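idk why but the lab printer keeps eating my pages so im just putting this in chat instead. protein + cytidine-5'-triphosphate:
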Amino acid sequence: MLADKRILLIIGGGIAAFKALDLIRRLRETGATVTPVLTRSGAQFVTPLSVSALAGEKLYQDLFDLTAEAEMGHIELSRSADLIVVAPATADLMAKMAGGLANDLASTLLLATDKRVLVAPSMNVRMWEHPATQRNLAQLISDGVLVVGPNEGDMACGEYGYGRLAEPLEIVGAIDAALSDGPLKGKHILVTSGPTHEPIDPVRYIANRSSGAQGTAIAKALAALGADVTFVTGPADVPPPSGVRVVSVQTAAQMLAAVQAAPVADAAVFAAAVADWRVANAGPSKIKKDGNGLPTLEFAENPDILATVSQMTQGRPSLVVGFAAETDDVIAHATAKRLRKGCDWIVANDVSPETGIMGGAENVVTLISDAGAESWPRMGKQEVATRLARKIADAIG
Ligand code: CTP
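predcted complex ->
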């Protein structure tokens, strides 16, 4: 897919630098040529020999390398590629880029290039969340730099959170999207995500444990393949991805209204954990302990958004994907759910507490379609999203 494309890969100094070796391999598998640049600190984590052996190309390391300068000057090097990729992009490299520094080979190439740049950040979660890094990130995005990741998960330093380098296949996907229009260019895809909050009174609500992580990852993966994404989200723990149209809602009824108001979609993915019931007697004022006994909540069933869209006679997306959150007999229940709701695919997952899936970083899913059930191994939610997005692209792209 990247045949004849030239990638200049800058490997920064971080524990995730080892993944750059796999990235080189994956890129070469797609037919790309990878010219590697290893920073001084990157060389503390991976050896120059392994980098150049895997790339099968000359490795560049120093700004003042006279041999290299005689063969190819740094200005020419910065412009000879179709895309510059920085993976891992450390906090330091991002700061240099945002500030326009050029005090080593990597930063000089990044300042001198006339090509697009894609960064894959990787760092400790506190460093990632630091206002300085977030400022630099905002600057880079407004300068037109493309960003993939970081992902959420366990870190080599023992902490947990955002800061893990995106997986090599995800970076390949982002490179492909950056260099092409993407297989989903021109396609509109609707994604629902997150929990819904159903009010009991103005200060209390009923909710569920969905973090919105899987739906967010799917929207991001679809956008990376060039789709125009409408992202209808309940109150999630994770921020919405960039590059998508975000519609924020609270309740199931609002989610249905937002879905119905969205432009006609080519595909729709219903990843939201919609509350099945709302409180029918939710009042406009706070329920008080007034000595007249315990309040009684009456429930009403919420509209089923997935079933409503699946059964539309006009303007139905050609591919409707639902999720099935189950705690037992996962495949049997999900298979029945697909038929009952009328969607094309169901992504089934086991959300029993012991799996740690709801609110966690990983997922184990089975994709159920007309063709039967396809079980995927346990993997990060972003990787599930990348795979699903690819499948959607194959189906409608
Ligand atoms: N869904 C929806 N609207 C609802 C309930 C669910 O759109 N009111 C969608 C979810 O986004 C998901 C799928 O339906 O794609 C299945 O959700 P799930 O909670 O697994 O199933 P339920 O329909 O709630 O069925 P049950 O509670 O019986 O398992």
